[in-house]
Amino acid sequence: MAEPVTKLPIRQEKAKASPSLPAWQPFESLRDEIDHLFDDFGRGLWQPFRRSLFAAEPLFRRGPMQGTMPVVDVVESEKAYEITAELPGMDEKNIEVKVADGILTIKGEKQEEKEEKKRGYYLQERHFGSFERSFEVPESVDPDKIDATFKNGVLTLTLPKKAEAQKPSKKIDVKAG
After folding, report:
1. How far apart are CA 140 and CA 137, in angstroms?
2. How far apart are CA 89 and CA 110, in angstroms?
3. How many C-beta neighbours within 10 Å does residue 119 have?
4. What CATH number does the domain containing 112 carry?
């Protein structure tokens, strides 16, 4: 049984003054990888390179967690650009696509709750997460004709090029010198 394709609305709005972004910390991910290496290296009582529990920054201050960004493919054809984002387990009502001042933004939020009551135990889990991903829209794209569809956990955005940008390219023969 085929699932219907859902059309998502694309909002166009003026960009507001963005809040200040956290400072770029190029060595933070390197330190995290090295810490992980030493955590795996020795599981004994004495670990001279391990951070103490009190020295570690709380998770809410570390910024965006890795693995929360959706996998995205961008393909250019002669007539359009196509952006495909894998969003498994999400519904179209939890996805927002908007264009403002030449920036295409995809936002999503996932809220999953699982409750299981069986003899002898009770299990309740909640998973929450959100993401935001932005792309600069090339000047050759007509922002009024951007189309978004969502089917089987895959968001597909089609960014059609303007007519003048769709001129066929000319192949130039290479001659031996």
Report:
1. 8
2. 8
3. 4
4. 2.60.40.790
